[in-house]
Amino acid sequence: MKKKILFLIVPLIFSLLAFSDASAAEKGKQVKEKQVRKVIHYTPPLEYSRLENPLTKADPKTLPDNDPNILAGKRLYEKTCANCHGIRGDGKGPEADGFVTPIRPVDMTDSEAIAVLDQSYVLWRIDEGGLGEPFYSAMPAWKDDFTETEKWQIILYTYKNAGVSPKAK
Ligand code: HEC
User: Hey, how many other C-beta atoms are within 10 angstroms of the C-beta on 118?
Assistant: First the structure.
């Protein structure tokens, strides 16, 4: 009787092991695919590309922690952007892994992300999000959710928080 049970159990264990191995490999593949999808930048509409941050000409990275625009931007960023882009801007917010699309929230500290963009591009992305062409992503649109001043404050903080400077105009 004992032998019979062993005959049943041993193959079962092996097949379970093989199965878990295969699904781990599949998961690994998915993670890799996610990682190779690099951030893609497009040409923003002219009404955005000509804009400059009206709040300050200073490099946001150099603004002090207690700058009023940085403080306001921090509060808004932490409430609305950090869930996805992470409290430190590293793209590792608590919701970041929950996407069905292969495009993850951008790591703002990446030298190829907002560091190669000027502030008006970021304004465009905040306004329009990623729901439509050309992005097709889960990035929400915030056009009517903030005043223009609030949007520029978020932008200043997003750069400062990530420790990167915007591309000069
Ligand atoms: C629900 C998750 C989510 C939230 C919340 C979110 N984003 Fe995003 N964001 C994304 C995803 C996903 C991408 C990458 C795909 C894309 O570019 O649309 C992205 C991309 C971006 C980009 C493009 C960066 C680049 O290098 O092209 C900017 C800028 C951005 N987000 C800023 C913000 C700001 C600022 C907020 C808060 C007001 C915010 N996001 C809130 C998901 C989110």
Answer: 19
